[in-house]
## 1
Amino acid sequence: MKKMTINDAVKFVAGIFILASLALGYYVSEYWYLFTAFVGINLLQSSLTKWCLVEKILMKAGMNNPG
């Protein structure tokens, strides 16, 4: 089975955060939609600057690109 790359893991984490915040916004409080916007802004920032905090955290946690 192919190992997950850091890029795949970042997309996975972003997807989980977005789906969780949408569910929390619907069931708990509309303020959770701000977290959805925050994730979107971070994705845009990351695509423009090529710097991603989640990527750095995953690398420090020991995840490496297979190669």
Note: The chain has a mean pLDDT of 92.
## 2
Amino acid sequence: MKKMITKEGFDFSNAKRGPVIPDTGNKERITIRIDADILGWFRGCVEQAGGGNYQSMMNDALREYVEKHREPLEETLRRVIREELRATGRRASRSVGV
């Protein structure tokens, strides 16, 4: 293999293509369209913080939203039971606590 030296003097003969940081496997690459003002806000926050990754910041914001709006299992069960009882025309028993 011959040496690949650029005019700047760097040797890329052992270089490998791909990301510098290996993929952890828990992220998925997608294409998404975001409003320019929203994207600008996240990029601005990263810039004000002195660096970082706006995509990670957006992911954290989405995760916080999902966790805040995730309905607890007990509430989900109560809601489903109420809906089913209404659909059948029955009333919930007080002993069930629905």
Note: The chain has three helices and no strands.
